[in-house]
């Protein structure tokens, strides 16, 4: 017995020692000194309680070199994933399973565009921006050369190649693609139009409906130079393989001085992005002479896309504008490499792409490009179910080199609202709602993008006729006509991925907009009082109420058979009285979402088929169309085309309710009072390697149940499904609140933690805070940072 105890003790110490060796081998270095050849002066980096680096340097080059190093040591593998998506090289690292993803991105043209943007960047000549970007790249490569590479590289047997400006532009391209709603939606809309007819489309919200909430415009007065004159008062399956998150939506609002307790601007932003580990944003605070900035950074990019100085704050939501059209080409009868265009023939260009694949020889494939763009048939299988003709993607982003780096550099350094607007004009795609507030009391929202002018007859959600020159875009709108609101009389600006109001020509710009429930809740709540502060605004940012769901529920109850309702009268009474809140103890959302799924499935799966119905649930059409779909009595969707009898609304809804209550009883028990929402909600932040068991237990981050919902302000989205277990896929990637009365007391939180390194103390330390609706400070006070820092790292030149 003594011998066994002795052996167990020895094994314990061996395991502990082994873990410490592994931890030492792969952990980031947060303390001590690192010598970097070429640094002009010592640069200090202080890490606060949550691992946020606070960089104090004497010049921008040293600051951004240090930034590149610390960013890489916390997020290098995330950078690796994102640059490989943007350069079409995932299969080289992860194997043959990712080959179709690489083919898709190469066909779409993002790697080609990244190379073009990098070439144009190099031609632009030396500048302060280039010096800072090059310093950041050097910092990343310093870490690759000298630092402890994260465990993922050892598990994959890979050594990272040096980071480059082309990689950086590839990451910008990934970000620009990530919304991808045209890819998901336009084939579906075209299929319904061709296979089922216009009467089926009319019940869907393909375009904005009168009951949807729009963002009001408030155009500023401008001088002759256009300056602001201010009054100072299966794509689905392929995308599932992506090892990086997709941008989903977002909320942002800025409250003017007349509506705040402090009499200064109050700024809020929470970007909605697919949950992952690490989460998408990396916070960093940079100080050097004449520059002080706290920002949220994408992996691999030196400049924060969201952030603030002591003078102004900037935030983002997705504009959701339609910047991608699909043209169905007509091939010449005697030449498959020519298309008919009016009375002319136009060539199809062919280029060969070679994709490196782990453990295999490179795979070659051809990309064909018409005058409208790349032919997508091979990488979008859905097209083959609609047409046998080649279909080309016309996408604004790839039409000109990106200037995202220049824009974000200038946005952070703007001295006033006019300089800020000059900076955002550089963003041609993706479409962004850019939010602004400043110490002078100005508030603003711009929908920034290069907006094409389409002919009046064109429906941009349907495949267009590539042989008809009259379907072509006519030109570009002047930036001054983009949707915007500068210091509106309402005293606030807000965006929540919903439709901007009509343009100066009286039309809505087409897009993939959400119906506006989030925007409406934000607008109504802000308008209700004039004493907003950093604390009382939190209830709104954390709110999980959707006011349209109870309306849908009541219409479904009214259409249901009373016998089914009587069998579960108590549960149905609670559902009938539901206010749309998604509290964890509530049973109403548990019933509603399963009932909604079975109702929609009973309506639509017979016409669309299972695969296309599943695709429908992935589009903005689903969110926008539910109230109209459910409440329209004479909709053609109600009849099941696979049966001889003609079904109606009452029959489909009642059957769906009966099935729902039977399944919930089997799933959660006979006592409907215990069908709590928290029992069917799951939140786990997946790491790219977590798809491979048992690595999920090592790398994924599990979190407590959250108030999962569709289109509440605190949007925590999931996919509707028949199983009735809802895996939260996306939500706020941070929650920022800033009052210009005290910028140094601004707050935020991340979904998991600052670091993507498994052995960092800041890998998942914010996961419970986030789930519980807690916040922590975004420190900018130098004395508090230095006196309270957990770790200090010094970069020395030599």
TrEMBL record:
Pfam families: Penicil_amidase (PF01804). Signal peptide: none annotated. One of its GO terms (molecular function) is hydrolase activity. This is Penicillin acylase family protein. GO terms for biological process: antibiotic biosynthetic process. InterPro entries: Pen/GL7ACA/AHL_acylase, S45.
């Amino acid at each position: 017995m003594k011998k066994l105890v002795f052996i167990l003790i020895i094994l314990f110490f061996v395991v502990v020692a082994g873990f410490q060796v592994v931890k030492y081998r792969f952990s980031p270095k947060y303390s001590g000194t690192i010598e970097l050849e070429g640094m002009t002066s010592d640069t200090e980096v202080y890490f606060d309680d949550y691992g946020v680096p606070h960089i104090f340097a004497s010049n921008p080059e040293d600051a951004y070199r240090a930034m590149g190093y610390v960013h890489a040591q916390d997020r290098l593998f995330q950078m690796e994933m994102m640059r490989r998506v943007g350069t079409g090289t995932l299969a080289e690292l992860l194997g043959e399973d990712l080959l179709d993803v690489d083919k898709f991105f190469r066909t779409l043209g993002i790697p080609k565009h990244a190379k073009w943007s990098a070439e144009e960047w190099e031609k632009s000549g030396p500048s302060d921006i280039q010096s800072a970007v090059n310093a950041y790249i050097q910092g990343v490569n310093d870490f690759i050369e000298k630092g402890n590479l994260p465990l993922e590289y050892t598990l994959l047997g890979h050594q990272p190649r040096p980071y480059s400006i082309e990689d950086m532009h590839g990451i910008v391209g990934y970000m620009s693609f990530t919304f991808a709603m045209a890819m998901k939606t336009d084939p579906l809309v075209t299929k319904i139009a061709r296979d089922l007819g216009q009467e089926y489309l009319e019940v869907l919200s393909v375009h904005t409906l009168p009951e949807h909430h729009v963002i009001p415009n408030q155009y500023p007065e401008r001088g002759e130079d256009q300056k602001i004159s201010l009054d100072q008062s299966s794509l689905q399956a392929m995308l599932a393989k992506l090892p990086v998150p997709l941008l989903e939506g977002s909320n942002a609002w800025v409250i003017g001085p007349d509506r705040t307790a402090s009499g200064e601007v109050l700024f809020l932003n929470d970007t909605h992005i697919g949950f992952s580990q690490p989460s998408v944003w990396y916070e960093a605070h940079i100080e050097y002479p004449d520059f002080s900035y706290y920002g949220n950074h994408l992996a691999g990019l030196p400049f924060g896309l969201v952030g603030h100085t002591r003078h102004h704050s900037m935030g983002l939501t997705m504009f959701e504008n339609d910047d991608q059209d699909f043209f169905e080409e007509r091939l010449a009868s005697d030449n498959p490499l020519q298309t008919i265009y009016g009375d002319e023939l136009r060539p199809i260009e062919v280029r060969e792409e070679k994709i490196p694949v782990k453990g295999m020889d490179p795979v070659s494939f051809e990309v064909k490009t018409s005058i409208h763009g790349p032919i997508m048939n091979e990488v979008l299988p859905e097209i083959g179910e609609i047409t046998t003709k080649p279909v080309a993607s016309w996408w604004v982003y790839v039409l000109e080199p990106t200037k995202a780096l220049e824009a974000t550099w200038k946005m952070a350094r703007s001295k006033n609202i006019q300089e800020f607007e000059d900076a955002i004009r550089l963003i041609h795609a993706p479409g962004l709602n850019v939010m602004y507030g400043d110490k002078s009391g100005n508030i603003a929202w711009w929908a920034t993008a290069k907006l094409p002018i389409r002919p009046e007859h064109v429906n941009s959600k349907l495949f267009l006729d590539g042989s008809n020159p009259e379907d072509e875009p006519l030109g570009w709108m002047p930036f001054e006509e983009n949707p915007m609101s500068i210091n509106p009389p309402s005293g606030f600006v807000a965006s929540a991925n919903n439709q901007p109001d009509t343009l100066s020509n009286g039309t809505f710009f087409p897009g993939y907009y959400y119906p506006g429930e989030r925007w409406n809740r934000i607008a109504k709540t802000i308008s209700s009082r004039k004493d907003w502060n950093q604390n009382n605004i939190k209830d709104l940012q954390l709110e999980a109420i959707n006011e349209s769901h109870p309306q849908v529920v009541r219409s479904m109850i009214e259409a249901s058979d009373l016998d089914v309702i009587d069998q579960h009268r108590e549960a149905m009474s609670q559902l009938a009285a539901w206010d749309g809140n998604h509290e964890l103890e509530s049973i109403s959302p548990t019933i509603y979402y399963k009932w909604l799924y079975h109702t929609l499935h009973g309506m639509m799966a017979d016409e669309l088929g299972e695969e296309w119905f599943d695709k429908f649930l992935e589009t903005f059409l689903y969110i926008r169309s539910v109230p109209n779909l459910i409440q329209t009595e004479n909709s053609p969707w109600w009849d099941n085309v696979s049966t001889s009898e003609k079904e109606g609304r009452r029959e489909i809804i009642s059957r769906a309710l009966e099935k729902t209550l039977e399944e919930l009883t089997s799933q959660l028990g006979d006592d409907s009072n215990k069908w709590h929402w928290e029992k069917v909600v799951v939140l786990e932040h997946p790491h790219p390697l977590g798809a491979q068991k048992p690595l999920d237990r090592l790398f994924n981050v599990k979190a407590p149940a959250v108030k999962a919902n569709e289109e509440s302000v605190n949007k925590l989205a999931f996919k509707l499904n028949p199983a009735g277990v809802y895996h939260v896929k996306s939500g706020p990637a941070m929650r920022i609140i800033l009052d210009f009365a005290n910028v140094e007391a601004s707050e935020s939180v991340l979904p998991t933690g600052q670091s993507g390194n498994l052995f960092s103390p800041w890998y998942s330390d914010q996961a419970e805070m986030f789930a519980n609706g807690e916040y922590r400070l975004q420190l900018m006070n130098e004395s508090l940072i230095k006196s309270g820092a957990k770790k200090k790292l010094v970069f020395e030149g030599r």
